[in-house]
Amino acid sequence: MEKRVTFNERWLPYLLVGPQIVITLVFFFWPSGQAIYQSVLLEDAFGGNTKFVFLDNFIHLFNDPGYYHSARLTVVFSFLVAAVGLAASLLLAVMADRIIRGATAYKTFLVWPYAVAPAVAGVLWGFLFNPSVGIIAWMLQGIGIEFNYVINGNQALLLVVIAAVWNQISYNFLFFLAGLQSIPKSLIEAAAIDGAGPGRRFWDIVFPLLSPTGFFLLVVNIIYAFFGTFGVVDSLTKGGPAKATEILVFKVYNDGFRGQDLGGSSAQSVILMLVVVLLTVVQFRFIERRVHY
């Protein structure tokens, strides 16, 4: 018999969801509305002189080659972060699910990176690959690979991807591991008795049953790549060299706070928000069809 939670007081459910509603209104709807309002204005850094320009900020934005460069860079960056992060974390989760000895220590070490702030992760990886004192840069130089992300744009982008993936991999790992442990072992044992090898058991049984978790993490990682990697970029490369790592979320900050173009920066944030919403809708509309619940 299904049991449902009932409340004796009619106001109690509203009281319980009230803090979340307030947080959503204050930290999402209000900033979003403010960004939409400022996107149709032209104002100075202190808001003293304000002029209504309607869609001029958006028109200027779509005529800016630098904006298209950041947009293309963001697409590539988001794909790399999501694909590499999900693949690596799934591999680690499968390995952790099979470990018998030292499993607790192995899982603990994999969870730790999530406690590191994105800005700290950027500083950490920047120090390791520093062309002057970085230990990994020194090791690469010893085998004939010159790694200098300060002047090489492709290497800088690669390093930002590595730092972003490392910072998010623990989050993905926890969900994948929980998903793997929720799969009935009897299904896998039955497939093994029928003669299915490890690879066949994974692709035909484990992977389909893990698809809801994978779909959720895909959406989360796309949003993370668009918004959550700002701290990594800011502390590691600051969008350089030569704007080789200036993704859209950093360009919003760079143009708004450094360039003092508040209207153009707000227009960029509105477009970025719409793009992420559209991507999320597309994922739920098309990719979710392949998910087996």
Automatic annotation (TrEMBL):
Q: How does it sit in the membrane?
A: Multi-pass membrane protein
Segments passing through the bilayer: 12-30, 75-96, 108-129, 156-178, 205-227, 267-287
Cite the entry's keywords alphabetically. Cell inner membrane, Cell membrane, Membrane, Transmembrane, Transmembrane helix, Transport
A matching Pfam family: BPD_transp_1
Where's it found, cell-wise?
Cell inner membrane; Cell membrane
Q: Give the domain of life.
A: Bacteria
List each copy of the ABC transmembrane type-1 domain by range: 71-283
Query: Known NCBIfam families for this protein?
Result: PRK10561.1
Q: How does it assemble?
A: The complex is composed of two ATP-binding proteins (UgpC), two transmembrane proteins (UgpA and UgpE) and a solute-binding protein (UgpB).
What's this protein's family per the entry? Belongs to the binding-protein-dependent transport system permease family.
Its function, per the record, reads: Part of the ABC transporter complex UgpBAEC involved in sn-glycerol-3-phosphate (G3P) import. Probably responsible for the translocation of the substrate across the membrane.
This protein is called what?
A: sn-glycerol-3-phosphate transport system permease protein UgpA
Q: Which gene encodes it?
A: ugpA
